[in-house]
Amino acid sequence: MRKLSLILMLGLSLIIALSGCKKRKNPVEPTILKQPTYFQISQNLWPALDNPPLSNQFSIPSRTVVVSIPGEVPIDNQGHVPLTWKKKYPVLYFLTDFGQDALTFAQTYRVNDIADELTAKGEIQPMIVVIADGNNPMGGGFYVNSIGGRYEDYIALDLRLKMDTSIFTRIVNDSTKKRGISGVGMGGYGAFRVAMDYPQFYSSVSAISAPLSIDAGPNGDWFTDYLRATAVQESLTFSPYPDSNIVPITDPLDKTTPATNWLFAMALGFSPHDPGDTDSSSYFKIENYPQGGPFRGVDLPFDSAGSLRASIWTNWVDSNDVKTLLAGPKAGSLANTKIYFEVGLQDSYMLQIANKNFNNFMATQSYTYIYHEYTGYGSFPADHFNFAFDRIVAILKFHSSNF
């Protein structure tokens, strides 16, 4: 009898357990709404890039912009949204790094997939992400207005107006409070420059591994310790005067000369050569742009002996260093802007020096900001290229929380 009771009890326990299993619900994965692809804005001529001194062949005024649209938007492949659709979205402008074009960046780093997944999980609000580049035959000019084109005006004026008043106007929230700007490397520098010069247009700014402080600070001197020293090690050569030094326009992404490539791109933005300057000790001519000449060029901030040219270097710092600008002529420009910047501690361009120095400066100011350093692990150092997925996630979450 005891044996029968034991069997009955075991059977009853099994029934209860099975009943509980039936009632238990497995976690439901959120439905991820997606557009079939990125949208592209192709324009025959962006006004700010038209007819610079180095010619349209150099500035590429017909460049394409890539746009990620939230998956919930009922938009057709022509960009048309039904008149019944009333919802509008914040816009994040993302500027690519040195040598990167917008479409390759978007496809490589799956910005739309990351945004859609985070939206579906409720970790960010749905937003439009506009990916633009400042690429040119030299890899870029750090998104400033210069002889290669007015890239800052292209981003802040041409592209913003195109988004606000043209193709996506039915879904774009054109309020400053709903507009942010970000970028990686050269693009991160450009994002801060644009946000400082046009603070009326952006409520938040962020940067991943950008040169935000180029001169000396408590953590070292990024220009001296890395950029100049490494370019010299990469066999940067000066021709004896009066022969012309030639800007080495080959592959901007040549991995054997990364510092040299950045050096000339920064010089294009920061120190285009003044034709009236009789000092040619650090002048490098840019051949073939425009075809047939007259050719223009750039001045490096140091000469063949490695000595700083005071006038050129002073201009680099006083007119182009983000830290110096915020301490001087642009003081207070980001007072109403939420700020985020981060860097990997094994950055390929030693930009941890620049960002630590910038953080030291920001700590003395009254700005609202977040600074983050990230590390790698094992055979995956936190360099300039690894962990792109994690970095984009962090950027999207920051801006979403401030829209």
Topology (SSEs and partners):
Elements: H1 2-23, E1 39-42, H2 56-59, E2 64-68, E3 91-95, H3 102-109, H4 111-120, E4 128-132, E5 145-146, E6 149-150, H5 151-165, E7 179-183, H6 186-197, E8 204-208, E9 216-217, E10 220-221, H7 222-233, E11 245-246, H8 258-270, E12 283-285, E13 297-299, H9 310-320, H10 322-327, E14 338-344, H11 351-362, E15 369-374, H12 388-402
Parallel strand pairs: 3-4, 3-7, 7-8, 8-14, 11-12, 14-15
Antiparallel strand pairs: 1-2, 2-4, 5-6, 9-10, 12-13
Helix pairs in contact: 4-12, 7-8
Could you walk me through the main structural features you see in this protein, from its secondary elements to its overall organization?
- With 403 residues, the protein is of the alpha/beta class.
- It folds into two domains: 39-215 and 323-402, Rossmann fold (3-Layer(aba) Sandwich), CATH 3.40.50.1820; 216-318, no CATH class.
- It is 35% helix and 14% strand.
- The protein has twelve helices and 15 strands.
- It has helices spanning 2-23, 56-59, 102-109, 111-120, 151-165, 186-197, 222-233, 258-270, 310-320, 322-327, 351-362, 388-402; strands at residues 39-42, 64-68, 91-95, 128-132, 145-146, 149-150, 179-183, 204-208, 216-217, 220-221, 245-246, 283-285, 297-299, 338-344, 369-374.
- Strands 1-2-4-3-7-8-14-15 form an eight-stranded mixed β-sheet, sandwiched between helices. A three-stranded mixed β-sheet has the order 11-12-13, with helices on one face.
- Helix 4 (111-120) packs across helix 12 (388-402) and helix 7 (222-233) packs across helix 8 (258-270).
